[in-house]
Amino acid sequence: MSELREIKTPLTDEVIKSLSCGEMVYITGDIYTARDAAHKRMADMLAEGKDMPFDFNGNAVFYAGPSPTKPGMVIGSIGPTTAGRMDLFAPDLIARGLKVMIGKGNRTDATKKAMVEHGGIYFAAVGGIAALMSQCVKSVELVDFEDLGPEAIRRLAVERLPVVVAIDATGKDVYDRG
């Protein structure tokens, strides 16, 4: 078996287009956490014409919120949450430049359509291995929405975070059984 490809954030359009549905890769670099409440706030900010809390260009949003950090650890357990819960807001954020998302589970047709139209990609992370995934996190920095606790936006420096391409830039979807 060959070594998994390692990709580095921020991802270029060329890298995004080169990834195929079902391909397993490692992500190294900075990624940003954001869950339901943070997505709602970002959508409100879009409606108000405000800048986003971080530059979407090539950066990944990880649908995750860490558990409390234990002494001596960089971060608590951190694993993916269900991506479909973000799909109320995802098409607008994708149209604004968000192209790289990490979560678990399938996506709505509207989100997939926006991904194809704007050249986006969705990675699935394996649920249930949050303690192991936390070992890929090398540093954490609060970015915005501190009052949201675990749902605040954080920048994580990750090393070799294992994911699979669930939906590629052409719209091919590992969850599509049709």
Strand-helix topology:
Elements: E1 5-8, H1 13-18, E2 24-33, H2 36-47, E3 60-62, H3 90-95, E4 100-103, H4 109-118, E5 121-124, H5 130-134, E6 137-144, E7 153-167
Parallel strand pairs: 1-2, 2-3, 3-4, 4-5
Antiparallel strand pairs: 2-7, 5-7, 6-7
Quaternary structure classification: single chain
The sequence of SSEs as H and E is: EHEHEHEHEHEE
Radius of gyration: 15 Å
- Please list the strands of the largest sheet in the order they lie side by side: 2-3-4-5-7
What's the name of the CATH homologous superfamily?
A: Fe-S hydro-lyase, tartrate dehydratase beta-type, catalytic domain
Specify the helix fraction band. Answer: 10-25%
Alpha-carbon distance between the two ends: 29 Å
Please state the average pLDDT score. 94
Label this structure with key terms.
single chain, 178 residues, alpha/beta, fumarase, five-stranded mixed barrel, 7 strands, 22% helix, globular
Give your account of this protein's structure.
Strands 2-3-4-5-7 form a five-stranded mixed β-barrel. Strand 6 and strand 7 form a beta hairpin. The chain has a single domain (5-167), classed as Fe-S hydro-lyase, tartrate dehydratase beta-type, catalytic domain (fumarase). It is of the alpha/beta class. It has helices at residues 13-18, 36-47, 90-95, 109-118, 130-134, and strands at 5-8, 24-33, 60-62, 100-103, 121-124, 137-144, 153-167. The relative contact order is 0.24. 22% of the residues lie in helices and 27% in strands.
